[in-house]
Amino acid sequence: MKKILLLALFSITLMGCNDPESAAAEAAQLRAEQHPERTYVGEHNYYTMESSGDIQFTTKKDLKVMYQDFPRYFVEKAKEWPKEDLNDVSSYDLPRFQFAWANSSSEDEYESGIKIWSMKTDGTDLRLVTDATIDLTEVRNLTRSPNNRYVAWAGSGGHKSVYDLKTGKVTVVQKTTSPLNMLWSEDSRYLYHERYRNRYSRWDSETGEISEIDFKIRTEAVLTEDKIIKVTDAAVVGYNLKTNERLFVLSSDRSLSDKERIFRVKSISPTGRFAWGSNQSFAWMFDTKELTVKQMTTDYTPAQILGKDAHFSALDSFAKVRIVDRVGDRVWSWRAFYYGALSGDAILYNGLANNGLWFKEGK
């Protein structure tokens, strides 16, 4: 009888060892024990928490360098990484950054291909948005619809596509070479884009139709039902689209030469209240409500990405994430990715979440 019981127990033990779930659990436990500093996401991916540090991108002397821990991501297998999910409300409690990234330097064509990713402005909740861009060599422009559902991108030749997070469908909007400008309507139905030089169209996300429009758009713009506020080469301009009336012009210093007054860096806040323009010599912050212009020479920090009410800003190159609290005069800088290659510039979306603040209270 004892021999029978021992054989039964031995058989159960063998069955447990051959169970894939048990083996995976044991492997995960072993990894955790060997690398307690890592938080694994799937079998091959993980992140570590590392402190932010010093920063050298600003001429402003009185910014306080902030030290806090941020995730640093090691993504070898994007197929194992969580995708952005419109139904996961926890992902949208902060504004988010979106960017194009080839997550791995391996020879695997999929893993080394460009994909679109996103993460919260505090560096957490990295998500894979879509891998539909894997055949592209470069992403030149990215934009997200106000309802977060649609992602539009332009390749190196200006060919434009839209990915629908709800259905997983990819639509090619522009097959031929074209300028890069794209802008979503306030209700997220239409993608306005520059189809040819100084010729503009809109793509209807409900019908798929493309039709000509009679007004100019810019990527650095905010469009409402009857008004557009856009950053041009050397000014910020507001138009009433129903009457074709120009509402205001806020210009850089007209006494300067063209080289000194033309913007090399442009951005606009999510509501259009504030806009930024700068070059190597001068910078301007525009308030489109008060119709004021603040000109700066040496004591300023760039605002390639501008948050709600111009409270926060960031550089759009994510080789190193750089965020400035323009109200509290604080700055954060950290490396979010260990390897891979970024393509094009990062953007901000979901910008009104958390009242536009990029960090949770107490962070």
Care to give the gist of this entry?
By secondary structure, the chain is mainly beta. It has 3 helices and 28 strands.
Present the secondary structure layout:
Elements: H1 2-18, H2 20-34, E1 39-41, E2 45-51, E3 64-65, E4 69-74, E5 96-102, E6 115-120, E7 127-130, E8 139-144, E9 150-155, E10 160-164, E11 170-174, E12 182-184, E13 190-196, E14 199-204, E15 210-213, E16 221-223, E17 227-231, E18 235-240, E19 245-251, H3 258-261, E20 265-268, E21 274-278, E22 283-287, E23 292-296, E24 305-306, E25 312-314, E26 321-325, E27 330-334, E28 341-349
Parallel strand pairs: 3-27
Antiparallel strand pairs: 1-2, 2-4, 5-6, 5-28, 6-7, 8-9, 9-10, 10-11, 12-13, 13-14, 14-15, 16-17, 17-18, 18-19, 20-21, 21-22, 22-23, 24-25, 25-26, 26-27
Your description of this structure?
The chain is mostly beta strands and 363 residues long. Helices cover 10% and strands 39% of the residues. The protein is built from three helices and 28 strands. The chain has helices spanning 2-18, 20-34, 258-261, and strands at 39-41, 45-51, 64-65, 69-74, 96-102, 115-120, 127-130, 139-144, 150-155, 160-164, 170-174, 182-184, 190-196, 199-204, 210-213, 221-223, 227-231, 235-240, 245-251, 265-268, 274-278, 283-287, 292-296, 305-306, 312-314, 321-325, 330-334, 341-349. The strands form seven sheets. A five-stranded mixed beta sheet has the order 3-27-26-25-24, with no helix packed on it. Strands 7-6-5-28 form a four-stranded antiparallel beta sheet, with no helix packed on it. The chain has a four-stranded antiparallel beta sheet with strand order 8-9-10-11, with no helix packed on it. A hairpin with a 4-residue loop joins strand 22 and strand 23. The protein is globular, with a radius of gyration of 24 Å. It starts with a helix and ends in a 14-residue tail after the last strand. The model is unreliable at 1-17 (pLDDT under 50).
